[in-house]
Design goal:
The structure holds 2 protein chains of 2 kinds. Chain A is built from 29 helices and 20 strands. Chain A is of the alpha/beta class. In chain A, the strands form 4 sheets. An 8-stranded mixed beta sheet of chain A has the order 13-12-11-14-15-16-17-18, sandwiched between helices. Chain A has a 6-stranded mixed beta sheet with strand order 1-2-3-5-7-10, sandwiched between helices. In chain A, strands 4-6-8-9 form a 4-stranded mixed beta sheet. Chain A is globular, with a radius of gyration of 28 Å. Helices cover 34% and strands 16% of the residues of chain B. In chain B, helix 3 crosses helix 14, helix 4 runs antiparallel to helix 5 and helix 6 crosses helix 11. The longest helix of chain B is centred in the middle third of the chain and has 20 residues. In chain B, 54% of the residues are buried. Classes of the chains: A alpha/beta, B alpha/beta. The interface between A and B is medium-sized, with 25 and 19 residues.
């Protein structure tokens, strides 16, 4: 037997009760050692004639089994190694499925990945009726597919349609929904879980519950689509089309998952499992999987790093104030209320407060519409945001976030007013995208309590928060801002104060060069299309239209002033901004919009504003991509060099979560590592001969290239 | 008495109310619980109170809800407050919020609590409509029927008249007299002229209009941001008529006695929706928490008389008792706030203050004396502002302590008359 001792066994009246409780870990997960131990126990059960059936429970509150320990994936050298690991899993699942002793899984808490595959192989699935009890196959999020039979057993259990939905999205399915799908046999109150599991184990042993049975409820639709070969073909074909369209073909796990599911209904069972193992092995070696795994490790590492010296104590924020009830302020208030925090929500005019509260309600209502929250919870959340025109209720607030108009004078006035009413130890956070925090802190009598919190719009959807610190910001202030950001569900990077901070700074040359391409006569849609194909969620001009041309123009001017010829001016961009085209909010920008805000293609009027008139230039998508991405990547390296960034990891996370830098490329620094720093320098220098400024590689990058260094270790855990 | 010991006195820290709106108008979508939550939430914010320090919340309401029989608890379950806050609902007709406040005072004086929120709310837009006895009986019987046939048979016993819904009336169960009829009777018994009533109503509107215009009244109000409709923020009471005149009031017809009556819609308080709450703390605890008391509660008293006599005259018995308990006299009062159910009632109460006979009934050798009208209801009263039954006591308390502080006065007296022949009086002292 292995040395892990994750399992313990009790036998009660012929029923073996196995408890899975991995020592020194917060969750249960499968590693080769754990699988070996499991296999040993399976043999033990098989060989003991007194044991008639078994029950598997988790000893961890809140999780059943979180899936495979992904550290083991890093050790794979070749696709065959990964396929072998998958086959190893198949063998264990097969023993569970067909062994003499039927197994009941009693699930309380998250049952993910390999945990769910285990459950699918078991003879009976019992779920506790708790909010934390969820089922999912999240492998797709790591660029993988389930490798222990999930793509085979799940569609057979719940039908192709529902299975594809789970496998392609990795989404959580709650206990009650799992019962509806036929994924679990029964949902019980948590206090009855063990008792009912043992009773069901007896029934399986007695044969009163057959080991093989259908659990899916059949409707006419599911009979047609899930239970006929033609129906399944139709579902698979449509899923492939939709998924390719959504992913732009950049995620090989998506077609692989569909292929694996298809294999479940073709040929023998063994062939299906073999197909799954091969696809899994292939994906495990793919660059996409490598980058998505990197992001997983990077975000996990970031969660443990508040950007302050160890031992710094953050103030726990239960109540906060938001000053400025515009769109950003409302977004911050809404996400805070979603976490049960009380928000004093202040502006100078009642109608502004009313408009802000209306946007808060709009965000909160999404939860109600999607039935994530009840009417009562909605009312509670709305009630947590308390609108006011006065500075009352600020006397005991540990954190205030000002989100007033982007104007230094206005911000200074608000800082001074706030310091009259706030407790001396309150954190004064300023939400700005363009004004240096140190500049805002000039008005403060307590600059060490001032910190920047750069949220992205719309706040409730954008996952990133940049916490911006000045040399004066006290570490506990930073820690409080970071901990609050995490509390409201944001991925938080800590950056040093400099124009544009990090995210907007690397965006500036990217946008400016997109503008230069217009000057050269490249079509708007060609640029947007090329960048989408590279993997950005939207192209640069769609982005500008969404942000607003006025804001983009203002921000561009500030960045140009700060970084000189690295941010080149674009005549076309200036003319379009100057023509008063505001973007989506104004009904026209680079694209035209109808009254309902629906976009209808590039507005031909924009081409009339090109400096070269309607002269067209053709550039390959690859050339467009290189121009824009290299400008961004080069600036990202400068941010690391300047100390704006604390690490390449923060730079990669910031670009992926803040801008939508293609996740399957890992981020700017991962992109350099994957391409090779030497190659990047060579390409930059080639572009610099024609385009100068933005493409001049920094000395830092050149030294990096000469020394053949990488930003991340080439093997093992990336961070 | 402990009530007067420095450090152990009960301090009023602050008070907040919703706008008061005529029933069926602006606040119609909000029930008692929502109105209460709005007032309590704003009170906690304004006072910079640590919600974890709250020991109890007690609220008054008059028209009960069948669905939430203890609205105080529902209010206390707002996410801003910890779940361990004690909460109960009280009912003493129009003095319900006063009952909530004095319950809280008692708990603090007993040493059972140090921080309490007390108030009241009423939604006369959301009065429960009841089924007739015949209809209810048939429904209950039908629900117990064992066969579909039996169910049909029981439902068949319903007669057309059973379908007429029953609305609760504001009538005395003992006498069957409505409030208005009682006020009418008091006007006649005490010889209160129509002109005097209208003049008092006019003063109420003018005082309230002035308090609204200069922001003294609106400062006590939490703005409400409606979720539906026009979404225009509601920041003031909607019953106050700044432009009303004696002539306009004189034109209104008497409602309860069309021939010889004097009580009109103009000199009576309207049916109103609203909520109000005050924060009470033991003096030393407030000071330790860095909160500044506005006033201390010096004494209070309740009294009662036969509802068949003069239903709304009991303040005349309660006020001398409260003053005696405070060790003070009426002329030491810098302000007097008298709840205005009807102008006829206010004038009858004032007359009673000056009456030897009422003084003797109250166990006093001499009458309290005349109230200086320049100190009475200086920002109007319930006739203009409105009267959500459960909330009025907390509204009056808040206005009294705020105005006392503003004027630099020392003592204030408030009285509230209530159905059932009940009366209330309280003396506060500026901090």
């Amino acid at each position: 037997m292995s040395t892990v001792s994750a399992l313990s066994l009790e036998v009660e009246g012929g029923i073996a009760v196995l408890t899975f409780d991995l020592p020194e870990e917060s969750v249960n997960k499968f590693s080769p050692a754990v699988i070996e131990e499991f296999t040993g126990y399976l043999t033990l059960l098989e060989q003991d004639p007194a044991i008639r059936a078994a029950v598997l429970l988790s000893g961890k509150p809140g999780t059943f089994i979180a899936g495979a320990d992904i550290d083991q994936f890093l050790a794979f050298q070749r696709a065959e190694d990964a396929a072998q690991a998958s086959a190893f899993g198949h063998a264990m699942m097969r023993r569970i499925e067909t062994g003499r002793v039927p197994i009941v899984v009693a699930v309380e808490g998250a049952c993910l990945g390999g945990g769910l595959e285990f459950a699918l192989a078991a003879a009976y699935r019992l779920a506790a009726d708790t909010p934390k009890t969820v089922f999912a196959l999240p492998e797709i999020k790591l660029g993988l597919i389930p490798g222990a039979g999930g793509t085979q057993r799940l569609p057979r259990r719940i039908g192709v349609q529902a299975a594809l939905d789970m496998i392609l999205t990795g989404k959580n399915v709650r206990a009650k929904k799992a019962k509806q799908l036929g994924l679990v046999d029964e949902v019980v109150h948590p206090s009855l879980l063990r008792e009912v599991a043992i009773r069901r184990a007896h029934a399986l042993a007695d044969g009163t519950i057959p080991r093989v049975r259908e659990t899916r409820r059949k409707t006419a639709m599911s009979r047609a689509l899930d239970d006929t070969a033609a129906g399944r073909m139709l579902v698979l074909r449509q899923a492939r089309q939709l998924a390719m369209k959504k992913s732009g073909g950049n995620y090989p796990a998506i077609p692989a998952a569909i292929d694996a599911v298809r294999a479940a209904f073709r040929g023998s069972e063994t062939e299906g499992y073999t197909a799954e193992a091969e696809l899994f092995g292939h994906l495990a070696m793919s660059p996409v999987c490598k980058e998505l795994m990197f992001l997983f490790y990077a975000t996990t590492a970031l969660k443990k790093d508040a950007g302050v010296p160890e031992g710094t104590v953050a103030t726990r924020v239960e109540r906060l104030a938001v000053v400025g009830t515009g769109f950003m302020g409302a977004g911050i208030a809404a996400v805070s209320a979603q976490q049960g925090l009380s928000v004093r929500f202040k502006d100078t005019a009642l109608d502004r407060v009313a408009a802000g509260l209306a946007s808060v309600r709009e965000v909160l209502r999404e939860g109600l519409t999607r039935k994530h929250i009840t009417r009562r919870e909605y009312d509670d959340r709305v009630g947590l945001v308390s609108g006011t025109m006065s500075y009352t209720g600020f006397g005991r607030i540990p954190l205030v976030i000002e989100a007033v108009f982007e104007d230094v004078g206005v911000k200074h006035t608000v800082v001074r007013e706030l310091e009259q009413v706030l407790p001396a130890d309150a954190v004064l956070a300023t939400n700005t995208s363009t004004i240096p925090i140190a500049r805002i802190a000039e008005a403060s009598a307590r600059p060490e309590r001032v910190v920047g919190m750069h949220f992205f719009s719309p706040v409730h959807k954008m996952p990133l928060l940049e916490v911006v610190v000045t040399p004066q910001t006290a570490p506990e202030v930073t820690a409080t801002a970071v901990e609050f950001g995490r509390r409201i569900g944001k991925t938080v990077i800590v950056v040093n104060d400099a124009p544009g901070f990090y995210v907007n700074r690397i965006l500036a040359p990217y946008i400016a060069e997109a503008g230069r391409l217009l000057d050269e006569g490249v079509r708007v849609e060609a640029i947007d299309r090329a960048m989408r194909a590279f993997g950005f969620p939207v192209g640069p001009f769609t982005l500008i239209d969404e942000v607003g041309l006025d804001i983009a123009g203002k921000s561009g001017a500030i960045m140009a002033a700060a970084f000189g010829d690295r941010i080149r001016s674009s005549e076309a961009l200036e003319r379009v901004v100057g023509a008063g085209r505001l973007g989506r909010k104004g009904g026209k920008g680079f694209y035209a919009y109808d009254e309902k805000g629906k976009r209808s293609g590039v507005d031909p009027a924009v081409y009339a504003l090109y400096p070269g008139g309607s002269r067209k230039a053709e550039l390959t998508p690859h050339a467009i991509q290189q121009r824009l991405v290299l400008a961004m990547v080069n600036e990202a390296v400068r941010c690391l060099e300047d100390g704006v960034l604390r690490s390449a990891r923060d730079g990669d996370i910031g670009a992926v979560f803040g801008i939508g830098f293609p996740p399957f490329r890992g981020g700017p620094f991962r992109f350099i590592d994957a391409t090779g720093a030497g190659e990047i320098v060579w390409r930059l220098e080639a572009l610099a001969t024609t385009h100068g400024g933005p493409y001049l590689p920094s000395d830092f990058l050149k030294r990096h290239a000469i020394a053949s260094r990488t930003f991340y270790p080439p093997t093992g855990k990336p961070v | 008495m402990r009530m007067h010991e420095p450090g152990h006195r009960v301090a009023i820290i602050d008070g907040v109310r919703t706008p008061f709106a005529k029933a069926g108008t602006l606040l119609k979508p909000l029930g008692v619980i929502e109105l209460g939550k709005l007032a309590v939430s704003e009170l906690i914010h304004r006072a910079d109170l640590d919600p974890a320090s709250v020991d109890l919340l007690t609220f008054g309401t008059v028209i009960p809800s069948v669905l939430a029989p203890n609205p105080a608890r529902e209010i206390a379950l707002m996410p801003l407050l910890p779940k361990g806050v004690q909460a109960w609902t009280v009912s003493r007709a129009c003095a319900s919020a006063n009952q909530a406040i004095t319950d809280a005072v008692d708990q603090i004086l007993l040493g059972h609590a140090t921080v309490a929120i007390a108030g009241g709310a009423e939604s006369l837009s959301n009065v429960p409509i009841l089924h007739s006895r015949g209809f209810s009986d048939a429904l209950v019987a039908a629900s117990r029927a064992k066969t579909p046939m039996q169910r049909v048979q029981t439902l068949a016993t319903i007669r057309p008249k059973d379908l007429i819904p029953v609305t609760p009336a504001i009538a005395e169960p003992t006498t069957g007299e409505t409030m208005g009829q009682s006020a009418e009777k008091m006007a006649k018994l005490n010889g209160i002229a129509r002109e005097a009533q209208d003049a008092l109503a006019l003063a109420s509107h003018q005082g309230a209009a002035a308090g609204t215009a200069d922001g003294r009244l609106t400062a006590e109000i939490v703005p409400i941001f409606p979720e539906r409709g026009t979404r225009t923020p509601i920041t003031a009471d909607n019953g106050i008529r700044a432009d009303t005149t004696a002539a306009q009031l004189a034109k209104l017809s008497p409602v309860f006695d069309r021939t010889y009556g004097t009580v009109t819609a103009g000199n009576a308080s309207p049916l109103t929706d609203g909520g109000a709450a005050v924060l009470l703390m033991r003096e030393d605890v407030a000071k330790a928490a860095g909160l500044t008391p506005k006033a201390y509660i010096r004494s209070y008293a309740y009294a009662a008389l036969d509802p068949g006599e003069q239903l709304l005259q009991a303040p005349v018995l309660a006020a001398p008792l409260a003053l005696r308990r405070a060790g003070l006299t009426l002329d030491q009062m810098d302000l007097v706030e008298m709840h205005e159910a009807f102008a006829a009632q206010v004038l009858s109460n004032l007359q009673g203050f000056e009456s030897q006979a009422w003084a003797e009934r109250a166990g006093e050798s001499a009458p309290l004396g005349a109230v200086d009208r320049s100190k009475l209801n200086v920002m109007g009263g319930s006739i203009a502002i409105g009267h959500p039954f459960g909330a009025t006591g907390a509204r009056v308390t808040t206005t009294l302590v705020n105005e006392l502080a503003r004027r630099g006065g020392q003592f204030g007296l408030m009285t509230v008359c209530a159905a059932g022949g009940l009366g209330f009086a309280m003396v506060v002292e500026r901090a």
